[in-house]
Amino acid sequence: MNDGMQRPVQGLFVLLVFSCALTAALIANQVTSAFVLPGIRDTWAAASVPSNVPPSTALDGTRLAQLTGLSSAPHVEVAPAPEQDLRRSTLAIRLLGTLVAQDPRWSMASIHELPAGSAHSLMVSDLIQGARVFAIERERILLLVDGRLEYVDGFGSVPPVAVNAHPGAAQPGGSGLGRGIRETGPDTYAVPREDVTEALTHLPELSMQARVVPAFKDGRPVGFKLFSIREESFYSRMGLRNGDVLQRINGLDLDSPDKALEAFTKLRDARRIELQIERGGAPVRKVFDVQ
Asked: For the sheet containing 118-122, what is the strand order?
């Protein structure tokens, strides 16, 4: 082997020997620490502290406060202020029912307003007798009146709304909404006026018969999707099925909360109700004659 190749090989050999020696030294050090040093540490731990060492003194809180500029007063836990009790509103309105959606903008409330006796629907931020709707809950609605929150529920002093119920309609606490609906042809139905009134005045019961959530396509709202429809419910009697997407009511697109509220409100006085539905990707049209 020539001198030009021999020098690098010798250098590599020396480096290899040095690495092996270093590794052996590290292993020996670890073994020594594991078996020898514990005894030394135990001896140190068992040694008594010299008596001439003065005991450590506690920190002077006042002196520390002067040096740091912090208060020396002990920390006191402050209990959170109790939630202010809401009071029942004195406005002449009574809550008939609510439909609460996951998105609060789509929640609706049906109220009866006095003294005119008119019933209509509200959504969040709507105005009613000078008050603004702050929130819609299952059992009540919250109103912002002169900067304070008040609530309206269905158990106030306002007398309940009288409804001309027929034998097939649902009674309070009953479960017969839509019993008067009958099919007159393919996707055509006859609906007694009392059934429409009963359904709109028993929204809590109606909301328990199916789940209704906003439907979106390409990130845009296109209506409401129905699922978990109960048998013999108002929805099933209208011929609706799980997975149906309600897109229009009487020609009004349900692509915004305002349009949904407008369509919902007009149902009370409508003599003909036309629903445009998407079922399995195909359009379905249902017509209801209110009698």
From this structure: 93-99, 108-113, 118-122
